[in-house]
Every structure is written in C-alpha cells, then in structure tokens.
Design goal:
By secondary structure, the protein is of the alpha+beta class. It contains 11 helices and 9 strands. It has 2 domains: 107 residues, Phosphorylase Kinase, domain 1 (2-Layer Sandwich); 214 residues, Aminoglycoside 3'-phosphotransferase, Chain: A, domain 2, CATH 3.90.1200.10. A hairpin with a 4-residue loop joins β1 and β2.
Length: 341
C-alpha cells in the first residue's frame, strides 16, 4: 500500500491484519491521521473486537534502515524490538501490540497501545494544567534515562555503536554532502573535533530524548516516543540533547523547558550509580546544537530532480540553521569554565 492510500483502505487492511493476529474478527473505527512526518505516518484508531474496544496507534515506517555509516535509522522490526526490550527492562517505551510486514497489505510498521497525555512542547512548558508535572519531570527524566542507559543490549545486535569521533565523522560528512558552507559551521565542527571525549562509558542511547517526544499527564512522564535513531554510545549525549534550548519551547527551565539541571543530575546519579560528567553533558549539548544546525542545512538544501527547492517548508527549516548555531556559541560563552571541554 502506497504512502498516500486513503484512510478507508488503511482501515480495511489494518483491520484484516489485526483480525489475523487476534485470531478473531474485529474492526477498525475512528481512524485518524496524527502527523505528517517525512519518514513516518502516524494514525490513531479504536480496535473493536468482540465486546472490547482498545485505543491503539499505528505507525507506518520505511522498510529499511539508512545506509551503513550514516545516522542510525532503525527499520520497523528493529524499532519495535528495541521498544520491547527497553520496556521489559523498565523504561516507559510504547507497548508494541503488533508488528506489520508488507504481506499485511498496509506497508511496514507496528501497532502500539495508545497512551493518554500531551506531547506538544508549548503546552507542557507553559500550560497551568501541567504545572504539577513540571515540578517532577526533571527528576523523572533522570530516572528514566538511567534505566535506558542500563538496558542490556545483547538482544539488540542491530544497533550501531558510535563513539564521539564516529558521531563527528558522520555529521561532518553529511554537511559536506549537502554543500552548505558557513563560517560558523566550520568553526563549530573544528571546536567539536578538538574536544572529542577520549573516555566514555558505552550504553544504550535514545539520542532524541526531549520535550516533544515525551507523553505527559498531570502526574508527569508516561511514555517515551521516537526510538528510531537509538544507538550504543556515550550516555551523556542524552542528557545534553534534553538540555538544548531548541527543545525548551520557550520554557525557562534548562532541562526541556520545564526543570533544573541539578534535579536531573541528582536523580540520574541516584538511579544509575554513575556520576554525571557535567562538562561532557555540556559538550554533547553543544555538539547536539551543531547536529541540529546541520540537519536544518540538509533539509533546506534539498532539491527536486529539476533543481528547484524540494518544498517551501523544507526551505523554511533550512533558514532555522542559525538558531542552534546561536545556541552553540551562547553555550560556549556562558559555560562555567568558558567552554565545555
């Protein structure tokens, strides 16, 4: 089934696949498209089987991961396997209900249980209804990240291992390929290369753990989404991404726009038994700003076959390259030691 199939066709094929999985007939109701991402399509629906009705989420994903040596991109089977392992170890990953293949007639992807809550960053950092949650979310993030980083990876042989140096090679290569030249990008690349950590403890890294990828209720964080770029690497990377200003959505808290660094660090240390290397977190926060700037540059430089811009939306994303670059240099100037090393 092509990516632009009608909702009626998706509902029919999805219902048939779930009926085979359940071993009894059922039907899909209230199917609704949630997002329009470049690589995934997300639907919510109710699965009615017998006397029960269950709220579920269907994610249509690409059938293969990215080229070797590039940014990790898990396929549907790998993504679902990772979430199952992480959840079994105690992380609040989505509960996978069904893995779909091309033979199911709806494309590759998976079905997970729906989790009630909010993901919109602006609401999470500013809405009064989430004030009680904001007071505990930094500590919750520390405990959740400690759990993720301690997750055994013996069943996850498909994950790439990326050292800090590997990360630099991948992203500098991506920038070179897209052809964007900018003095600030050149300086940031050199700065990161000269400060690559030589000592780090390998663990499972989510790599996109941030506001916007967390489902939150009045009680706090209920689920962690978007595991498809996970890798084995330096766990401090996750703490750095979470503290990026781009993902604070205007909130005042340095952690995700909602909390304080010390609450995050203290909870992580207590739950993991490992000290937080604050300077290395700052390094990864700086590097993550550079990564996001490179991602913006790549999107903005996208072209159609005739050489015209890929889309107005992607061109607009490209213009945002300067925001994470500003954050990169601001971070260097405000770091307690002048610049993270």
């Amino acid at each position: 089934m092509g990516p632009e199939a009608s909702s009626e066709a998706v509902a029919e094929s999805l219902g048939a696949a779930l009926s085979r999985h359940e071993g009894r007939p059922g039907r899909v109701q209230a199917l609704r498209r949630l997002t329009g991402g470049a690589t995934k399509r997300t639907w919510s629906f109710d699965w009615v089987c017998g006397e029960s009705t269950q709220a579920l989420i269907f994610q249509q994903t690409p059938g293969q991961s990215g080229p070797r040596g590039r940014v990790p991109k898990l396929d549907a089977h790998e993504d679902a396997s990772l979430m199952r392992v992480a959840r079994a170890h105690g992380a609040p990953a989505p509960r996978v209900h069904l893995l779909l293949t091309e033979g199911d007639g709806v494309g590759t992807g998976y079905v997970t249980e729906a989790v009630e809550g909010e993901t919109l960053g602006k609401k999470l950092v500013g809405d009064a209804a989430f004030a009680p949650a904001r007071g505990r979310m930094a500590s919750q993030c520390g405990r959740i990240l400690a759990t993720i980083h301690a997750t055994p990876t013996d069943q996850l042989s498909f994950l790439k291992t990326l050292s800090p140096g590997d990360e630099w090679e991948v992203y500098s290569g991506l920038l070179a390929e897209c052809g964007v030249r900018h003095p600030a990008l050149s300086y940031a690349l050199r700065w990161v290369r000269e400060r690559l950590p030589s000592r780090w403890r390998a663990g499972l890294v989510h790599a996109d753990f941030r506001t916007g990828n967390l489902i939150v209720g009045p009680d706090g964080i209920r689920c962690v989404l978007d595991w498809e770029i996970a890798r084995i690497g330096d766990p401090m990377q996750d703490l750095g991404v979470l503290c990026m200003r781009s993902w604070r959505f205007g909130g005042s808290g340095e952690v995700g726009g909602f909390g304080d660094r010390e609450d995050l660090y203290a909870a992580y240390e207590e739950a993991s038994g490992h000290a937080v290397d604050r300077e290395r977190v700052r390094f990864w926060e700086a590097f993550s700003n550079l990564k996001w700037a490179i991602a913006c540059a790549r999107r903005g430089s996208g072209r159609r076959d005739d050489g015209s811009p890929a889309s107005l939306e992607l061109s607009a994303v490209g213009r945002r390259m300067e925001e994470p670059l500003w954050d990169f240099f601001t971070l260097l100037s405000t770091s307690p030691k002048g610049a993270p090393r």
